Batch of 3 targets.
Target 1
Amino acid sequence: MRQAGYGVTWGMNQPIIAVTGATGQLGSLVIEHLLKRVPATSVVAIVRNLAKAADLADRGISVRQANYTDPDAFEKALAGVDKLLLVSSSEVGQRAAQHRNVITAAKRAGVKLLVYTSLLRADTSSLDLAPEHVETEAMIKTSGLPYIILRNGWYTENYTASIPGAIAHGAFLGSAGKGRIASAARQDYAEAAAVVLVNPQLPGQVIELAGDTAYTLADLAAEISRQTGKTVPYRDLPSAEYRAVLLQAGLPEGLASGIASWDASAANDALFNEGRQLSRLIGRPTTPLAESVRVALQN
């Protein structure tokens, strides 16, 4: 047995797996999927706020505090870690610098596999989110660390979160036109990350992940109408008009501009992919749109 710091003792042959952003929307789900596959004592949750992770510590998980802006703290948090999931930072515009800190810390700590959550077809994507992911991918590839890059497609929750507002106002608004959206539930991507972290994988892979079946926003509106028994049509707006509506609804300017521009890219199939690598990785079909709508209506 070895003592790996932070008061946790692990077996010699059990790889230690760390997850950044472990209390976040994706990271917390990855933790849950890991716990179905490995003992809690082989999981490390890296968080900014220890208080938010008290429940993880109670379950026997080693909780360590580090911020993407502090490479020294991250190096300490990665002591004894074999595999690291770097969940991309939520701070758009600062991601590349923050990711560099984590990559540097991982190399210094001797991490044996770095898994990164990137963006679907990042190298060719028209989404304005892509450049920071491309820059991060390049940093990872030149770091010398063994890596696997998971290029996550859109989360279905990005759209189903708008269902209450659509019902209240009698229409689902957007600027995606007839663009095909091959999204999947956040749970699907989380399970894929857990599978890659637990099962032996060939390093150096870049895996494009998306939902099995694509839909348009008109299809989404039709499904909302079907499940609620209310008529909720899709209303397609010019990007500038959609941005103005979002601003009027109280969204911050940066987020409103982002959502409108992402829809504009979606109109040109930036969120479409038919490779079905995600379902093959998790060994089951991705969550159907109807199920995601059902869950959203229950919450």
Target 2
Amino acid sequence: MIDRWLGVWAVLLAAAGLFFGGCAATPQDGPTDVLRVGVAPTGPPLIYKEGFELKGLEVDMARRLAQALDKRPQFKQYEFADLIKALRRGEIDIIMAGMSVTPARSRRIAFASPYLTVGQMALCRADERDQFSTTGSILLTRGRVGAEKGTTGQLFVLQSFPYAEKLQYNSTAAAVGALKLGSIDLVITDGPYAYWFAKQDAPQIVIPTYTTFTSEFLAWGVNKNNTALLDEVNRVLAEWRQSGALDDMVDQWMQKIE
């Protein structure tokens, strides 16, 4: 069940306002038989690339959502920080990229009903695990802390690491690469991503405390002017919850990080 992965956390309601600007635009008319899905394939197991192929929970859900809407999915790739701008320009119909619901984002786009809850976690090198054995030693570090730009992980670093040198990267994978090379000391990222990289890069990269520092709802983003699509997406999500299909999809991908 999804609750197995969620935990009992409060919703993160930080006043973000750091990543997005500009005015909303009316969505451009796209092909009626196509669902244009905006993705940033940098966050396994939710969304990533293996070779040239898109994979992950979001990819599976996008294909099933398009089928339920009698459409075919068309994936359009962006950097995570550019997804909302692309949606508001009408280049895509929906964002399916492991995006957290925040007040700042909610002012610019409409979110469908959340499908998963996650929290920010830390990654460090295994040989430095003892230096980050408590929450305080992580948050009060004077070291170098990295996160993917435009994410709530970056926002958390900016707000909660008063003494650290803060660095941003185009992807979580790039941040983890810098961690492995010793260019930074910690990476802050969503829990599923942290578990994924800790498993893939074991024993070199580890999660030092298994503490979740935040609680965030993940949801899909739709242009505020496209209420018809938002209603249809929420209808499909409700059907998936009732049938157990949403649990099954989440479990299938979460089991890959056990």
Target 3
Amino acid sequence: MRLDRQSLMLLALVLALVSARPTLAQNSETGGIGGTGVSQETGGIGGTGVTRHGMAVLGYGPIQAFGSVFLNGREYMFDSHTLVIVDGHPATVASLQVGDIARVEGVITGAKRGYAESIDIVHPVIGPVSAVGDGGHQAMVMGQIMDAPKVPIFAGLKLGDMVAVSAQLRANGSWAAGNVQPAPGAVAQILGPVTIHDGRLMVAGIPVILGPAVVLPTAGSQVVVIGMAEKDGLVAQSIVPGPSLAGPAGTRVEVSDYFQGSDGTVRSPDGLEVQNLPDGDKLSGLQPAEIDGNLEATNVIDLDPQQSDALDQTPVMSPPEPDDTTGVEQAPDDLPPELPSEPPENPDLDDK
């Protein structure tokens, strides 16, 4: 059948319209973590339609699990708008691990549920390994004693390996470690309280030498020192303020940390303070405690008197088993290196 000129023009127009329709490209970012299905298109988690309305909440402590992000028993949803920062650099939720010490800022969306507007991770200790002992349950990194009582996360490390450790500082100056990651070529880092002894700057018990143009921090402040690890300490290239719970007064706060009570004051070694905590002087700072309350001022938590579980002893984290890497030297279990019996000196928390 022959088509006249008008029919041919109509057919050409139809074909042009069909070919102009956009093809549906597969979204490469829908994999998420644990099958959550984070999508740039949906703006939610697995089709849940997460909204960003609700009471402001700040969470601080070790990440407990993924699927969403679980912190202090609260499940935080996230999406493509959630800001993730690791050691000051943009990152993704996929780069986080169980045991990472996280500061999550967001809103409450339901009972033990929330939406994470930002997730901030700071590895408090990045540096070379100088000892591994107790079958991988203990190590020394940057002169700091690291304990992992349940899982031997340090097994397989070699002396001199550069690693980033997620940990929380106990009241006696040792660290409770949640996980450790290789960090070849990384710059050394230490997070902790500032003290001055005989005119010498110390951060978390490590001597710090100020590099050019680096300003001396205030004694008692919490800082992150970034620089070069030397035999006698750390040469600071920069010093920045440590993480804080800064936010609007009245913000809900949920924290897991090593709090110690003394003379009516309850503080953690990394500077958090709790007000109106009954029997707070019984906290030793050697076992983790979970405290829920309201933000009274920067780094000051006012206990929620109507929250029956506002103070809970938190079980020690059980991070995932370390990979069995072939060909990696490991300190023999029967010959653990000698670790110092005394932890690094820390400031009197009551004098802060």
